[in-house]
Every structure is written in C-alpha cells, then in structure tokens.
Amino acid sequence: MTTDLTALPLSRVEAPDGTFRLITWNIPDDEGGHRYQGMLLVRNGKRQTLYELRDQTNGIGSPEKAELGPERWYGALYYQVVPVKKGGKTYYTLLGWKGYSRSETRKVVEVLTLRGGKPRFGAPIFGGDGRLKPMRQVYAFSFQSSMMLRHEPEHDRIVMDHLAPARADMEGTAAFLGPDLSYDALVWEKGAWQLRRDIDARDTRKDGKPYQAPPKAPRP
Question: What is the Cα–Cα distance from 145 to 176, expressed in whole angstroms?
Fold first, then answer.
C-alpha cells in the first residue's frame, strides 16, 4: 500500500540527474520559530538509501563555516537544485527558505555532496576574500519582507535581492533588513560561486542584450 503525501505541506526537489530526491517540511511553534524535518532518498545504481534529516539549527553557531551531515542539519525548505561541477565532482546547490523567528526570516544557499553515496551538507565553493571559504550562504532579513533568491539557467546565475537597512544605524540587524530594489548574483566561475553586486536583472533576449519594448504608436 502506498501512502499519498500530495495533500501534505511538503517541499520536494529532485536532482536533475536522478541521484536523489529530497523532501523537507517545517513545524512552526508558538514562539514564532520553526522546527524542520526532512527525508533524503539517495540512489546509487539499483541501491536506494533513505536518510532522516535532523534539524540542529540551535546548536550551529556559525552555519557559514560548518560541514554537516543528516544527523546535524541546518534545516530549511528547499525549492531549487542547481548542479555544478568542479574537478569531476558534482555539487548540488540547494536554494531554501528558512523561517527563523518572530522578527527574522532567512534564505539559504546550501550545498549537498555525496561521498561514497553518503550525503554531506556544505562545501567551500563560494568565493571569498580570505583563505577560509564559506560552506554555505545564509541571508537574514525582516520577517515583514520577502527576499527573491532564484536560479536563472539562461544566464548561469543565482539572482537575489540586495538587502539593506531601513536606516543607516540599523546596519547589521537582520530584523530591519529588506530589499532595496537592487540585485546581486552568484555566478559560477573558476570552480566557485562568485558574488557580483548591483547586476542588471531585467529580462534579456537570447543575444544577452536587455530587452526594450517597441515604442507605442502615437495616439490619434
């Protein structure tokens, strides 16, 4: 007998190459926080292995620095998978939403790899100024705002709203950050996701030039 899960509020993503299927969901609490759960089905030839994901957000003090496993997971609801390759290895970049508290929401750019068929979360494939590269990117902003974070395959990039404070003295406080009508992007170059600031996010034609609508006909 097969259980029908289509009516449940689950987020489902699958690797384009069929390597895995990932199902995540969240349980809000009375304090405004969220607890996340997930199941990861990994396919290795004819063999399939199911992993339970256990949210340990409260015990992960610096999520950008940590490599994690299914038993210690930085919970999120994933909605896009972006595979990239480096040195013959595939890194599955996951885009996710993370309700965090009454005042703060987060978006996450996670990385899933498979080592001998076993999953690991986080990989140093993000560009940075120092020697220690981030393992994932976490963007925190006001719960009253929404942040666009999406993959644009036609441009080989991940585009996002740039977050800025409502006032200069609120800089660095996530609860007061929101989109400022400019856009940044992560572009895959030289084996890493490189940050490009203040990009042109307008729709483009296939030749890469910004689309300009034809002039309107003069009124009679």
Answer: 9
